[in-house]
Design brief:
heterodimer, A: alpha/beta, two-stranded antiparallel sheet, globular, B: about 15% helix
């Protein structure tokens, strides 16, 4: 078997595996969230969220910090819509940038609330996710103190920020957003083919009346979908959307390392995938989930009614339908 | 085939053919791994970006 085949083979099977793993929890969370549903995500469309037809999606890949993307975005005087994924909220607020919309999708009940600051956290959890993850590395040291700072920051600056929340989001996230004065706009994840008679998506829509968004596997892609398919933005830029780890990242500093090492042991070199950046020549490391996100994005971007600009200056999202440029060129273009 | 090919010797080793539908260890291994990996939201291929329901079945007419 040629080297690398294993990682790509796993990536090809992750659409079905994801549906199998998260659907039940997502549906349970929807039932719990139903009393809180007041606004549809479609209610965001007529609101004045940024001027003109441009939007920037802020994701939290390593290039966000390496290239100082948030600082540059703020300095650029960009007047379009700024849409941040949940894990970018803290980084944005620390730089004094308040997003127009924050997107949250993951049904996890313990981890995701941390992106908003978890007021119930009193000691470092056994789960080392926040100490290990690359999305907001300030949590790597003294995460209890960092969490406390984030709670205060969100309480002070995020009131009134709109949250585009998947009905699959955990009640912990919902309660935290409500407590911070954030405004929730709801949508259903598209779980399956709504044209099939036994479709979960169709049944869910019948129950709560909300639109179903095709999330593309991850919150960053869901934010991009929101930008053009809901808000009607026609030129959408991406920052921090790397779908990978910068050159030199050790395996144990990657998101799925515990799961991968437990299942594949010494075959790590076969599971992880390396992708060369066409401009910089850098070789970025990625894993099967991120590689799947990339392949899905390329499938979706061909059908999108918008131009997509990758301003990450790194990562593995380069190819047909995605225009590579700098953030400044996008803002001034 | 065994009706036509007959050797003039006997072998000591017992040869068992694997059952045709039995999963390989690689399949089992990867299936177990897949149950722990993946995304935070589904992707549905070739179904567009947003579905607001069908007017025909009444599902798209709710006030949201």
């Amino acid at each position: 078997m040629p080297r690398m085949d294993l990682g790509r083979r796993i990536a090809e099977r992750l659409a079905a595996a994801t549906a199998e793993r998260i659907t039940r929890t997502g549906l349970d969370n929807e039932k719990e969230n139903r009393p809180s549903i007041k606004h549809s995500v479609l209610d965001l469309a007529p609101l004045p969220l940024g001027e003109g037809d441009r939007a920037v999606v802020v994701a939290t890949g390593p290039s966000l910090r390496r290239d100082h993307s948030i600082e540059r975005l703020k300095r650029s005087g960009f007047t379009g819509a700024i849409i941040a994924v949940d894990s970018a909220l803290g980084a944005c607020l620390r730089e004094g940038l308040v997003p127009d919309v924050v997107v949250t999708v993951d049904p996890d009940s313990a981890r995701i609330v941390r992106w908003f600051g978890d007021p119930t956290l009193t000691e470092a959890p056994k789960d080392d996710y926040f100490r290990r993850q690359e999305m907001d590395p300030v949590n790597a040291y003294d995460e209890v103190a960092r969490n406390k700072e984030l709670v205060a920051l969100v309480n002070a600056r995020a009131a009134g920020v709109r949250v585009a929340a998947a009905t699959a989001a955990s009640s912990a996230v919902v309660k935290r957003c409500q407590a911070a004065g954030m405004e929730l706009y709801w949508w259903n994840p598209m779980y399956d083919d709504y044209d099939k008679p036994d479709s979960i998506s169709r049944a869910l829509h019948r129950v709560n009346g909300l639109p179903c968004l095709n999330g593309g596997g991850n919150v960053g892609t869901a934010a991009w979908v929101l930008a053009h398919a809901v808000l009607g933005k026609r030129r959408v830029a991406l920052v921090g959307m790397d779908f990978g780890y910068e050159p030199g990242t050790p395996y144990d500093k990657t998101q799925y390392y515990p799961e991968i090492v437990e299942e594949f042991g010494s075959r790590l070199d076969e599971v992880f995938i390396r992708v060369q950046h066409p401009v910089s020549g850098e070789v970025w490391l990625t894993d099967p989930p991120y590689y799947w996100f990339r392949e899905v994005f390329f499938e979706m971007v061909g059908e999108a009614d918008c131009e997509t600009f990758n301003c990450t200056e790194g990562g593995i999202l380069h190819g047909p339908g995605v225009k590579a440029t700098t953030l400044e060129e996008f803002v001034n273009g | 085939m065994t009706d036509y090919l007959k050797g003039n010797y006997k072998v000591d080793a017992k040869i068992e053919e694997p059952e045709a539908d039995a999963p390989t260890s690689t399949d089992e291994f990867e299936k177990k791994a897949l149950s722990r990996l993946g995304g935070s939201i589904c992707f549905v291929s070739k179904k567009g970006f947003i579905w607001k329901g069908d007017a025909a079945d009444g599902s798209g007419t709710k006030d949201r």
